[in-house]
Specification:
By secondary structure, this protein is an alpha+beta fold. The chain has 2 domains: 2-24 and 118-151, no CATH class; 30-113. The protein is built from 5 helices and 12 strands. It has helices at 11-16, 76-80, 83-90, 95-102, 145-149; strands at 2-4, 20-24, 30-36, 44-48, 53-59, 65-70, 105-106, 111-113, 118-121, 124-125, 128-130, 136-137. The strands form 3 sheets. Strands 3, 4, 5, 6, 7 and 8 form a 6-stranded antiparallel β-sheet that branches. A hairpin with a 2-residue loop joins β10 and β11. The two termini are 25 Å apart. Bound molecules: flavin-adenine dinucleotide. Flavin-adenine dinucleotide binds at residues 5-7, 11, 30, 113, 132-134, 140, 143-147, 149.
Length: 159
Amino acid sequence: MVIGADGKHSLVAKTVQAERYSEAPPLAPSYYTYWSGLPTDTFETYVRAEDDRGWGVLATHDDLTCVVMGWPLAQFEANRKDVEGTYMKSFELAPEFAERISGAKREARFQGIRDLPGYFRKPYGPGWALVGDAGYHKHPLTAYGISDAFRTPRQSRPR
Ligand SMILES: Cc1cc2nc3c(=O)[nH]c(=O)nc-3n(C[C@H](O)[C@H](O)[C@H](O)COP(=O)(O)OP(=O)(O)OC[C@H]3O[C@@H](n4cnc5c(N)ncnc54)[C@H](O)[C@@H]3O)c2cc1C
């Protein structure tokens, strides 16, 4: 039995030609970094129709707060020329948050990802199974990737 736990570009899935279904194109590219001096005790979310922006604010380790920003795929090429400027300007859509983050310190470089397709793959066959992102992938906005990895392999939705 071969288990493909090798992520969304799974070699196992390619080799067995696992059928893909319920596919969706990549959605909002996401960028995140970590801040000190920006305390939060909950999972804050901000969604703004203006400029199609959304961001999440979550407490992590060592009193650092992760701020994850997403914008439409159509804006990817234009915004990648100035990720920091675009990221920071987006906060003007929520002035109270802009005020909070203006007093915070960025403690890490920006990390970004665009390759965020949605799909299911048939996750089993004779002698093989796919787990985690190899079998099922969606935008990280849901924050369910790891939990769902524990629930596969199975066909998660009717075909
Ligand atoms: C920006 C972002 C934020 C996220 N936030 C959350 C969150 O808050 N909560 C949550 O639950 N999920 C989150 N996720 C999703 C989560 O990261 C994934 O669902 C999860 O990591 C999938 O685990 P996996 O082991 O299936 O795949 P992966 O983590 O991709 O691991 C696959 C591994 O296989 C290795 N590999 C690939 N090919 C081969 C090969 N041929 N030979 C040997 N090794 C190979 C890779 O190097 C990698 O180490 C987020 C994802 C992103 C991109």
